[in-house]
Protein 1
Amino acid sequence: MRRTVLSAMALASTAVLATTVPAFADDATPTPVPSTRPTEEAAPAPAEPSQATRTPSSAPAPARTPGQVAVVPEGAPDTGVAPAASRSGTGGMLIGTGAAALAASGAAVFVVRRRRVTGA
Amino acid sequence: MTPPSRRAFAAAALASLLVGCGGPAADRATNEGRSSRTPPPAAKANGERAAEALGRSVPARLLIPAIGVDTPVMGLGLASDGTMQVPPITPDDRAGWYRHSPTPGQVGPSVIIGHVTVGSYGDGVFRDLARLRRGDTVTARLENGAAAEFAVSSVRKVAKADFPADDVYGDVDRAELRLITCGGTRTGDGYLDNVIVFATMTSARGA
């Protein structure tokens, strides 16, 4: 009876590990590096007096005559591309720890069986 | 099964569970918590002291000693969709000045952005921007040899969906600086938040 319970416990812990690693791996899925947006050449800016006359788009900008920021960009700057390399490295580490945990469980089962066989 | 073997088995099972559930998640939670802060209250007199504005000259270099930043600055315009261009994803990541904003030292909000991470290359130039504190120094060196020194007045983390355009791009009556990067929770598409540093010029050195 106890043997059955302990075997079930070993299976349960293995199952937990098997589900834990994919949970992390899901988070660590590398994302494709989006192509950078720049369409204009990134070079030191010349003076741009003419742009002061361009009107900010869409947003109901309250009659802000050419402001100190001549053209207000849309939305928020997208200044973060997920670190794919480090994240896949994390996934590798998780797989390694998962494998180590499975090996430990296997070793425990082996010791138990051996003791049973030897009658210890 | 004997009691010792039972104990050994139970200990192994417990250890395997602990190994499987530990790891980077806790570290991530710590980092997220660290970057969340609210703008501090009223400014000190020395942090808000107005300095005489400089003439227009594009920034060539940006230095933020508190977080070890010393980077060249490139010019950025608008992308075809109307958003601000961002610096290219390269191993030698650098900051970018939005060329439709005043140059650092001119009256108005000069806008400089940088990546927090650059994909497989790892950390971006503004990786630690959220760690800046009120009073930290930011220096912009300009192409004409002049330099403008700023003091951080506040650091804000805001949802990208609620980007405070008026606070960032709105007119001001002195030379100010906005440093922007991404932050907060990371998803498959990037980050959900922006970290924005507001700084005021405290001194200027002419060309």
Protein 2
Amino acid sequence: MGNYYIPAKYLLSHIVDADIIIPPFITAKTIELGSKYSPDFVCTPFKYTLGTMIESLEQGASILIQFGGGCRYGYYSELQEQILKELGYKFELLNLVSGKANIKRIYKMIKRIDKKFNIFKGLYHLYIAKNMVKYMDRVDDYIRKNVGFEVNKNSFDNLNKEMLDKFSKVNNPISLYILYKKYFHKFKKLKINKPKNCLKVGVIGELYTLMEPFSNYYLEKELASYNIEIKRFTNVNYLLFKNKKTIKKALRKSKKYMKYKMCADASSNIYWTKYLCNKKYDGIIHIKSSFCTPEIGSMPIIDKIANNYNVPIIYFSFDANTSEVGIKTRLEAFYDMIEMRRQ
Amino acid sequence: MNCYLGIDIGSISTKGVIIDDNNKIITSSYIWTEGNPVNSVKKLINILKNNLDKKYVVKGIGTTGSARKLIGLLLDANVVKNEIMAHAIGTLSIYPDVKTILEIGGQDSKIILLNNGIITDYAMNTLCAAGTGSFLSSQAKRLNINIEDFGPLALKSNNPVKIAARCTVFAESDLIHKAQVGYKKEDIVAGLCKSIVLNYLNNVGKGKKIKSPVIFQGGVSKNLGVLKYFKEILNTDVIVDSNSHLMGALGIAILSKKNSSNKIYDLNIQDVSFDTKAVDCGGCSNNCEILRIYKNNKLIDIWGNRCDKYIKN
């Protein structure tokens, strides 16, 4: 998912003695493979992850690790395991999704891969990986705000790649922190041509589709090409460490619109909609994969908030074979509309 | 004198208008696309050119509709824009105080909400072609009725049959069932018109506040039956302009006028050869479909690549 394979690989390669295979980047073949063996009406992340699993197994992986949860995703790994076993692949699945994700259980699982596993070493590297995610997300946030205004094409992209490459080679938290500071400074020095009152758009929705650029047809890149500042809240740092806090805050701050906690990120998205409206963003884009139940539940409420604040909102629902042209037409019209409203 | 050409190339029909400096339509034409946008545009321009007085010079060309990019290249257009903007601008030039535009075309349908001449919200149909012109025309064929007679026939009915509006497949099986139990043709046709309206309001117009003045346009707006049920269900007057099918082309012509420079365009494109050659890249597992566009056997653009392997040079 995006660039998050870097901290994940870092963590695993430092705590267990095993070959870590990075699955190939998601391509049209991944989703083709995934769709072929998935139920048709399952949500799209299922298809992507299944495709990735097949591609990894083809490359010789013997152990797969599945992590995540919150919605139907909790049921995925069991079903995916069964589908893959029926296809004749031989592997072991470390399922961190279903059942309790307590330390004892994870410890036992890792012990199965590597008998020499040391828990203190594990926690130490977990701490580094956690910080890495945090720093990456902060840098990403800065990139999203400014990449649309870069003077030299691909300057942000290239610097980000360079930084991630350096990140993957660190071995203690202090050198990671120094690297992060150094590169953040470099990012700030990159030439941008940003007008003071540029158009600002917030992107909210279902987590997988938001974070894997291939699955949203590089929506953020497309937006940046229109010189728009982008705000996105969902990232791994939020999902792993700030999720519960945000949902509590969401329930408190948007009492008027919801009474109870909703599934997955639905409550957070409602709160963020209100936040974006209050901050006078020019538009909101809500994206999700087809058949994503939590977001379907949140959409009428989000619609109501956007209506109350008179902020334009557009919804995209992505499936395995969405027409790219259709998305571009709607995005172009959305851009024209928010620009027209400005004038 | 200056004039500006706007072309709207849709899935079913190709529309063209030529306007003067005061946004007045000098000449217009409406022909079928027949699955070949390049040929239909050549035909269209030929018709327009023959109707155009010699004193006019073309100072701008704009294209919109689903083949806008290709035709934009062919004609070297100065504006290539999406249909939503084009329709809004075109309608605003005739009805400056319009609040809602309902548009049903051949393959898509959209709703545009405006306030003080500014687009405030819009939506397009997402999932399928249910409730669009192509559904109506295929059903007309099934019932062996000319599409032109569809509207007047629907008006005769006092008892429209109920047809499932959600999806064309269900609507069709419903329709066959109603026909087989002996409903009158006009009742079935009226039911179809009503189902288009219901489908539109449930899918495209969902959650949108429809305020009058309401303008209905696109090819389907010429269907009197659909218009009748829009009026009935929305409980407000719905205006259909005599040029309602040309609004997109008019809008894009106006946009092209706004962006025009001193360049003069030549409308002699009958002998220009224009080809698209497709090839599967095969460079990686993305397997992009690379489209090469040739004008007079000269490569002018490449589309469809996800990486930088194919760049026009």
